[in-house]
Amino acid sequence: MTSEIVSVIGGKETSSGVTYESVDPAHLDEVVARVRLADPGTFSSACRTAAAAQREWARVPAPVRGRVIASIGRLVEANAVELARLVTREIGKPYAEALGEVREIVDTCDFFLGEGRRLYGQTVPSEMPDKNLFTFRVPVGVAAVITAGNFPVAVPSWYLVPALLCGNAVVWKPAEYAAASAHALYRLFEAAGLPDGVLNLVLADGATTFEGLEAALAEGTVHKVGFTGSTEVGRAVGELCGRHLQSPCLELGGKNPMVVMPDADLDLAVEGALFAGFGTAGQRCTSLGTVIVHESVHDEFLSRYARAVAGAAIGDPSGDVLCGPLLERRFADRYEEYLGWILPHHTVVSGPVGRITADSPRGDFTGEGGLYYHPVVVDGVRPDDRLFLEETFGPVVGVTSFTTLEEALHLANLPGYGLSCSIYTTDPASVFRFREGIGAGMVSVNNSTSGAEAHLPFGGNGRSGNGSRQSGVWVLDQFTRWQSMNWDHSGRLQKAQMDVAEIVPDLEFRL
């Protein structure tokens, strides 16, 4: 029986608006859940509810909030298989990847459960006697978190866990096409004992969310916005927050380069390019965009890469496959537009292009009933090609060549994104020259452009974000604000920079 899921605000289910059907992209005739979408007023109401609940939640001692985070981790761990299976069914992510995604939530909880005892401030020496200076981390208030559906449970946890730990309340709007996975994760958070209203789930489309967010910002019931999604929408969210003097946490798209040096282990580089380019069917913000290969190894790399792509398993995501279907029909339609960017001067070295069907099969696999697409490798991309410059959310990778590392760095930085990158080399000097010259927030050496660990900062620059970071201790700066306090117990008014004792040196002294 197909379930119907609704928003949950203040611990109560709230049903309104039209119904959206979340469909299994591997079996388009199977409805995973029917989702009642909220209206803008529901979103802004959720923010008011969160604001009322946040004051009491902030009064809960941080170590106690840390124990709640620990409970969330244990609950997710105990339900890992069920949650991963739901992710696979709802968005078509291969089960092994989905299980890894769920593991990322557990890792995030394991890291942050101790931060409840380490939300440190500092004591700072004063320039005057009988005076003490202190700093404190304080919660921002209410965080509105808007997440994409390609990582429907892991990426939200990067926001929800630290935000809640720091004493904030949250209004979370997941992607509607991944609403069942989000609802399941919400239930696990709820089971950990969060008070009503501290975490609220609003199921809505993008336009509705933007309108509701605009109203909530105007009312002053949202104090931090976290957004994961496209650069285009992220720019609009950033502009909206700027009008209210807020700095959002933006994690946006990428056109992630992989540089293959002449001394690279080519088999390792091919393995990394295969996973980075086609894992999750190329639908990651950290997916490989362009392989930039030294001209001396270009042909050999391309030959090996084409063979690896041809031999990769694509099919039912419940099996042992490199990738399954695209996430949803809208992404399939958009991906077909990207395939239109392949031009006559390009060479497709991977075989058929487009949807896998009975008329265009991949071996014996016809992709019947699902949104399956052939993986595409395009050689000969040029710096002025759209295929080189713009994010292509799907299973297509461009290849070009270079002669010097300086040229490779120029090509890698040219699209203006700055999320992730990779270099394959055995030369430490090349590694450090690359790291110094690249504009990306994350650099991998002899590894994929994809992959994150819970205790390392995640985020990008340029068209990939506004420099904010998620994960590790760095994300605490997104969900707390620094408060300073000075305590003068001298019994008199001491004026900073004015009533400071001065010891006069003899600057004319010479040996």
Automatic annotation (TrEMBL):
It comes from the Bacteria. InterPro entries: Ald_DH/histidinol_DH, Ald_DH_C, Ald_DH_CS_GLU, Ald_DH_N, Aldehyde_DH_dom, ALDH7A1-like. Keywords: NAD, Oxidoreductase. SUPFAM superfamilies: ALDH-like (SSF53720). Residues 18-484 form the Aldehyde dehydrogenase domain. Its EC number is 1.2.1.3. The active site is at 251. Belongs to the aldehyde dehydrogenase family. Homotetramer. This is aldehyde dehydrogenase (NAD(+)). It comes from Streptosporangium longisporum.
